[in-house]
Amino acid sequence: MWSCYGRRDRINTTAPVTQLSINSGLHVGRDSDAGANNLLVDGTIEGSVLFLTEQAAAEANVAGKGQFWVKTATPNEPYFDDDTGVEIPLDNRYIDRGDPASSDFEHTDLTRDAAWHAMDLSSIVSSNAIAISLSLKVSNSAANTYMGFRKNGNTNALTSILTRVQVAGIANDATVVVACDSNQVIEYIASATGWATIRVTVLGWWLA
């Protein structure tokens, strides 16, 4: 039913508060049912900006269709879901931490015994971080000592990153990128003795 209500038009509603209020589905371009409160367009929608309100999860899957949506987070996160419910994040981007005034870990914060240990960075990086950029400064009284990182759970030497002290007593600086697990945990290793300086600072991270 189409009727006029003053200067406002309405379809299936008795109290419109906008210029056009539709309390039903709307299908543009065909006669098939759009479903309650749905908008289907068989042509082209043109415009410069489309705003989507964030929500906790995607809508129910519809065979043969996909959906773009915004997941509630700080900041919120864009997703695409296919018709089987597979969520594909669309914000695979680098987050610059800014300009931290101090390091996150010093040598006294770390276990130095030439064995691998967990380093939990979840209090620093985003909950959907997949890789982390670290600034590292090391100095040791012995040459060829080392500090290293790898993804939590990895075991092969080829997947670890080692920074070695080239000259005793001379500081060595490096920037390393380390993949993290789903809990934003990585692993580190450091030679057992002789450390004057180990400074580890998170510079930024990449999102899933």
Number of strands: 17
Dominant shape: elongated
Q: What would the average pLDDT be, to the nearest integer?
A: 89
Low-confidence stretches: none
What distance separates the N and C termini? 48 Å
Model description:
- There is one protein chain.
- The chain is mainly beta.
- It folds into three domains: about 1-45, no CATH class; about 50-90, no CATH class; about 95-205, Jelly Rolls (Sandwich).
- The chain is built from no helices and 17 strands.
- Strands 9, 10, 12, 15 and 17 form a five-stranded antiparallel beta sheet that branches.
- A hairpin with a 5-residue loop joins β7 (about 75-80) and β8 (about 85-90).
- The model has no long low-confidence stretch (mean pLDDT about 90).
Explain briefly what this protein structure is.
By secondary structure, the chain is an all-beta fold.
Essential attributes:
4-stranded antiparallel beta sheet; about 210 residues; about 40% strand; mainly beta; Jelly Rolls; about 0% helix
Question: What is the strand and helix layout of this fold?
Answer:
Elements lengths: L1 E4 L2 E4 L8 E3 L3 E3 L10 E3 L25 E5 L5 E5 L5 E3 L4 E3 L8 E2 L10 E4 L8 E12 L5 E6 L9 E4 L7 E8 L5 E6 L4 E13 L1
Parallel strand pairs: 2-3, 4-5
Antiparallel strand pairs: 1-2, 6-7, 7-8, 9-17, 10-17, 11-16, 12-15, 12-17, 13-14, 13-16
